[in-house]
Amino acid sequence: MTHENKFGMFIHWGFYAVTGVQEQVYARMDLPREEYEALMHKFDPVKYDPEKWVLLAKEAGMKYICFTTKHHDGFCMWDTKETDYSIMHTPYGKDVLKMLADACQKHGMLLSLYYSCPDWHHPYGYNPASTHQWKAVTENGSIDTVAYREYVRRQVRELLTGYGPIYTFFWDIPPKIKDPSLNEMIRELQPGIFINDRGYDVGDFSTPEREYKAAEEERFTRMTEACNSVGEQSWGYRANEDFYSLRHLTTSIDRIMAMGGSYLLNVGPDGLGEITEDYAARIRRVGDWYNRMEGCLECHEPDDFNYKIKANKAIVTKKNGKSYFHFVDGIRSSSVALQFFPTLPKSVRLMNTGKPLSAAIDKLPEYASNGRAQKFLHITGIPVDDLSNEPIVIEIEW
Ligand code: GLC
After folding, report:
1. Cα radius of gyration (the chain)
2. Is the pLDDT of residue 116 over 80?
3. Rounded distance between C-alpha atoms, residue 80 and residue 123, angstroms
4. What confidence tens digit (pLDDT) does each residue in 299-341 have?
5. Is residue 112 in contact with ligand 1, taking CB distance under 6 Å?
6. Residue 339 and residue 318: Cα distance in Å, rounded?
7. How is residue 244 annotated by DSSP?
8. How many other CB atoms sit within 10 Å of the CB of residue 346?
9. Which residues pair with 394 in a beta bridge?
10. How large is the average pLDDT for residues 31-49?
11. Of 4, 77, 180, 205, whose CB is crowded by the most CB atoms within 10 A?
12. Nearest residue by C-alpha to atom 4 in ligand 1
């Protein structure tokens, strides 16, 4: 992914939103097929205004939107010629993807497309080699992954020819069938596109999901885009979602991005087409922190100096000659002490507040070695108690 465009909004939206349960309500609540599929006739998102979504993402500092064109239920959110199981055959009857693509274009937002390999509606959608097949159609007793793949190919071609430039392509649920010709077609239709690793070939980038705890690793070795939702029970709209804390989300974003990854933060618009206030508020609060970082999470390289930091742990990156110390899990006191550092800093700034911090060479008695106080670069006056909801990032110009 390009260095400047690393923070995006994931949007899971389909007629499942009318249930207010989850994007996989059909399988997870074991609804009968007729009951579930009939819900499409109740899908009339009259409040859908994609410009509002785009502006919310933009306000939060996000550079792209990744939209679920078809989730596991097989329902298509664009004007596909391949099936009647689409938005065009709901009471709403409009190409919501086209409307979103136009809104993105108008506001300079990049557009990425999500497409599920499992398909619980298509007669040949069943793939015994893969997962998430619980509600796939098997009653006609036939499995034809080749015929299904041709359907996928025709649909993906529609998606990549009808909606302008596409930034990334997000296959979901690896089919465990190798067919490089699909990604080849994607690249032919959209030169420069980035493709994830959940499709019919390895693709360009990895996709860790939900929790990601770096072990010893401080940098991703492969292009990576992590994804998470604002709530822990669902990706689609959930009426009583258990929302993650601000601290949890900002910590996760800072860790992934400082390690060189991109980040997709998901919301699920409701059955009327709105990103409801409880969801939007989370995006705004994360965005408030993200914007204070002034883009230091993007466009960086690792800082290879062998810093030694007392008591706290940081991932250190570099951008435009300045170093950024990401204290992902916070700082335990109001100061930071560096034992190894290249030279005296020209300036030190706390990104969270934008304010300068004092830094001096100090002898610190508690860090004595052989009974003698040692000298450290001592950065002081960090208002840690005011910043307990977010990771702390310090900028140093050497
Ligand atoms: C998981 C969920 C799926 C969601 C995806 C997003 O695979 O099961 O519903 O679309 O994550 O990455």
Report:
1. 24
2. yes
3. 17
4. 778 999 999 999 999 999 999 999 999 999 999 999 999 999 9
5. no
6. 19
7. P
8. 10
9. 325, 350
10. 98
11. 77
12. 235
The count of other CB atoms within 10 Å of the CB of residue 259 is 20
E strands present in the chain: 7-11, 64-70, 110-116, 168-172, 194-195, 225-229, 262-267, 301-302, 308-309, 315-319, 322-327, 336-340, 347-350, 355-356, 358-369, 372-380, 392-397
* pLDDT reported for residue 182: 98
Helix axes 50-59, 96-106, angle to 10 degrees: 40
- Domain ranges for the chain, please list them: 7-292, 301-397
Helix 277-292 and helix 50-59, axial crossing angle in degrees, nearest 10: 30
The lowest-confidence range among 143-147, 192-196, 240-244, 269-273 is 143-147
**Widest pairwise Cα distance in the chain:** 81
- Is the beta carbon of 23 within 6 A of some atom in ligand 1? yes
Given ligand 1 and candidates 10, 70, 207, 209, which is best to mutate, with the most ligand atoms within 8 Å of its CB? 209
- Locate 368 and state its tokens: 């004595």
Residues near 33 by beta carbon (within 8 Å), at least 6 away in sequence: 135
pLDDT in tens, 267-309: 999 999 999 999 999 999 999 999 999 999 997 789 999 999 9
pTM for this prediction: 0.96
Report the CATH number of the 7-292 domain. 3.20.20.80
Give the Å distance between the CA of 67 and the centre of ligand 1: 12
Question: What CATH number has the domain spanning 301-397?
Answer: 2.60.40.1180
Give the nearest ligand 1 atom to 236 CA.
9
For residue 245 the two structure tokens come to 């804390």
The answer to whether 167 and 111 are in contact (CB under 8 A) is: yes
Tokens 């919301």 label which residue? 267
